[in-house]
Write a structure and sequence with these properties.
By secondary structure, the chain is an all-alpha fold. The chain has helices spanning 7-24, 31-45, 50-61, 72-75, 83-89, 92-100, 107-114, 136-150, 162-171, 178-184, 190-196, 200-203. It is globular and about 45 Å long. Bound molecules: fe (ii) ion. The site of fe (ii) ion has 5 residues, from loops.
């Protein structure tokens, strides 16, 4: 972000983009905010600096903005996607980067969005980056995104419980961001664990945006 542009303008611009995506895809309603809250929480726990936290919070809010460019029949398909449909769906991080990249001031946000589906083992997309080559902000967003997806209801399954969600993350060493969870060592304790899945009461003041 640039110091020459009022910060409030960044935040307002991001909110406009979130509103555009939510108008397009009802599923993302509140999802973006929940992921952004979790991202902030994890980023705080990981000891990131305030400016980095601000950046990844903005990126988390618009991580799926590229879905605007994915056809409705794919975005809203209740059943599994066909290979060709997956191919189109998997373009959304790049579409998001292209949208955000129109603003030089949002360049770093665009980069975090581009990599939010990379995987620790290199089997993610779009670039197949591996391990620490994936920007830490993207890894944190991926973890928060995964947790929110698992703990939300789907047409084909009820929401996973906290314990089921935790197990999923533990048994998947390639889960994006899992090393953040390991480093934080918080997933097993009540307060941190519940905060991780968005329990506001458990979160208390500990995850407050510092600054
Ligand atoms: Fe995504």
């Amino acid at each position: 972000m640039s110091n020459n542009v009022p910060r409030v303008l960044f935040h307002e611009t991001i909110q406009c983009l979130v509103a555009a995506l939510e108008a397009r895809d009802p599923y993302t309603r509140n999802h973006s905010k929940r992921v952004a809250d979790l991202t902030l929480d994890l980023g705080c726990r990981a000891g990131l600096q305030v400016l980095d936290l601000e950046l990844i919070h903005l990126a988390a809010l618009v991580h799926d903005i590229g879905k605007i460019g994915v056809p409705d029949q794919i975005l809203r398909k209740p059943g599994p996607l066909l290979p060709r449909e997956w191919e189109l769906f998997r373009q959304h991080p790049e579409i998001g980067q292209n949208i955000l990249g129109r603003s030089l001031h949002l360049e770093k946000v665009a980069e975090l969005v581009l990599h939010h589906h990379e995987r620790w083992d290199g089997n993610g997309y779009p670039e197949g980056l591996k391990g620490e080559r994936i920007p830490i902000g993207s890894r944190i967003i991926a973890l928060a995104d995964g947790v929110d997806a698992m703990t939300s209801a789907r047409a084909y399954r009820p929401p996973l419980s906290w314990l089921q969600c935790k197990r999923e993350i533990y048994i998947a060493p390639d889960f994006p961001g899992h090393e953040i969870r390991i480093n934080l060592g918080r997933l097993g304790d009540g307060r941190g664990g519940r905060a991780l899945v968005g329990d506001k009461e458990a979160r208390g003041g500990s995850a407050a945006f510092a600054g």
